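Technical note accompanying the year-one report. For the benefit of new consortium partners, we illustrate the data format agreed upon in the data management plan: each record pairs a sequence with a structure-token string. No post-processing was applied to the example shown here.
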Amino acid sequence: MQVGLNQSCDAKWSVSVNVAHIEPPFLLGVYAEVDEHLRFMKLALAEAENCTPTETAFCVGCILVFRSPSEPNRPLVLSSGYSREIEGNTHAEANALTKFYAMSTEEISALHLPVSFSSVNDILFHTDVYTTMEPCSVRTSGLAPCSNALIAAGVRRCFIGVDEPSDFVQCEGARRLKDAGVEVHWVKGLEDDCLKVARRGHTQA
């Protein structure tokens, strides 16, 4: 039996099984990668739990994870954020980026990145975003959408826990990221958890 991790046309993870022969090392590698994505999404969920609930917005968590081109199997968490963490109606992804941009040279050095970079943008080019909900494409508050901020930052990939429901706006954040060349993936298995925490404080219909 040969197992492979594929992406469908809409870039969602899927596992295909071809009955042929068993390749244990490859099998372990596939599931190790899936487990790693779930681990980081659970960290993002923990961030979302820190949000102050409100009826007028979602509770979302985000983690920025650096993967060195020389040591891709040694990911490092750069920053984290959650909705309304920073004063104002701020969003998780924007807050994680803001906190990273605010880091001093000494703080970045303390991360012990395996290679040296000339700018924070070079670091972000090798960074993956884990967010419990699809990054916004429209802000009713008038603030810049998170999808725009991620594109401007030049992040490599974005892993999403659940699509943004149409409670407030029609979101096209994932499509906007794809159109800009960012790889977009949905992490399967935590959709209900991500949606449940997102709607904390909402009045049940």
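Partners are asked to follow this layout when depositing records. The two ends are 47 Å apart (CA to CA).
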